[in-house]
Structures are given as structure tokens and as C-alpha cells.
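Archive record
______________

***
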Amino acid sequence: MGSGIYQTSAKYYDDAYAVKLDLVDLAFYVDLARQIGGPVLEMGCGTGRVLLPIARQGVEIHGLDNAPAMLNILHERIQTEPEEVRRKITLHAGDIRNYRGSQKYRLVTIPFRPMQHMYTLEDQIAALKTAAFHLDEAGILSFDVFFPKYHLLDIGIGEETLELEWPVKSCPGRKVRRYFRKDFVDKIDQVFSFTFIFRTYVNETLVSEDTEGIKLSYYAYPQFKALFRLAGLASVEEYGSLNKTPLDEAAKEMIFLLRRAA
């Protein structure tokens, strides 16, 4: 995952996901951190959407990311937190494929799909090995990815869809709309490319537009079982949603809790 990713999206990120009603991962990861305790390492911490609520629960947490645009925003957000929260947070700039810190953790998380920015087998194994390296003897790794909807892969390529809309709080009458356009599907390497289009309106008049191209990998369940073996990990719990429903034919997500293999 290159350091330039989300260069544009970073400035819209927090407001966009604040209005995304189907995003329910926060409660899952906060509860997990409270149950297992710190220290926690969050790989791909971004602007702190998950990291900060965990720190506010009094849990020590370290954040790792290689996107300067995201980390800059997180640094600013941390400065507005009370001292007792700031003391719980340590940030590291680094790539989840090759970062090696000096500390071990009771919990390592990769929330909100950074694993889907790992596009090759080598990168996927490397990211999981980074997580395994940082687990203490009884530590748990948890991450989530979406369950691919294979019947929709070829549908809607080139079409724009309005996904999200939110007001600009500092400017009455101004709003941002985020559109999604699927651009390409690579079924061999299991990657699809898309574009986020951010259009800003003042009283329904378009005043600016930003775009950012992104690609995501997608996984089959047996693929993960092989990746876990290659990375020296063993599955402890598996869910089909962040509400801990079974990983079955109705699953919309794949959520894993893993330990280092014996």
C-alpha cells in the first residue's frame, strides 16, 4: 500500500464515514480491546476512527500507518484529546508489510480492510507475518474483509453511483456528495479498481470536484486458510459479520481471530 494512497480521501474521510450507517466495526473492535486489554497494535490506523475510541476506554494502543495524509490528521486529532487519552497513544509510520517494532502486543488489529490493499500473495503473507511477529505468546490478531459478491463483479462498470452525502459543518449551505464508479475487475488476480468522486455543492451548485482512484483485492475463504498456514497463524474464531453471526452462506463479511500457530 503506497504512501500516496488516500491523499485526496483523507480530507473527507472522517466526515464521510461518520454518516455511513452500515459501518458497525467500531463497536466490535472497541469491545475486543476492552476484553483482551492492551497494549494493542492497530495496523492501518488511518485518521484514528477506531484507534481513538479504544484509547478513550483507557486501553494502551499503538497505531501504524504509511499514509502521511492520514497520520497528519490523526496527529491533529490527538492534540484535542485529554492528557489521559493522549498518554495511551503511540504512533508509528511504517508499512504493514515490513514494519518490525520492538514491542509485543496482546491484541493486533487490522480493521476496516487494509488487508484488501494487499494485492499480491507476497504482500498478503508479509502483512500477516508482520501481525504474527508482534503478537505476544497468547496474543490475538483480528481483522475483517468483505465477502465478495461474485454475481455483481461485472455489473455496473463505468457507472457512477451516489454513495454518501454530508454537510460541511463550518459552511452552512455547503455539502459534499461522494460518488462511486467501478472501473475494472481483474478476476485472475482478484482485484477491482474504482474511483471515488467527491463533489462539493453550495446551495446545489457544484463548486468543486476531487477524484481518487483506488483498488481492492478480494478473497475466497479457502485462500485465507492457506494464507494463515503460510504466515504461521491458526484461526480461533470466525464470523460472517461484525455482529458475530456465523461465517456461512449468508455472510457479508469475513472476520477472523487468530493466534500464532503452535
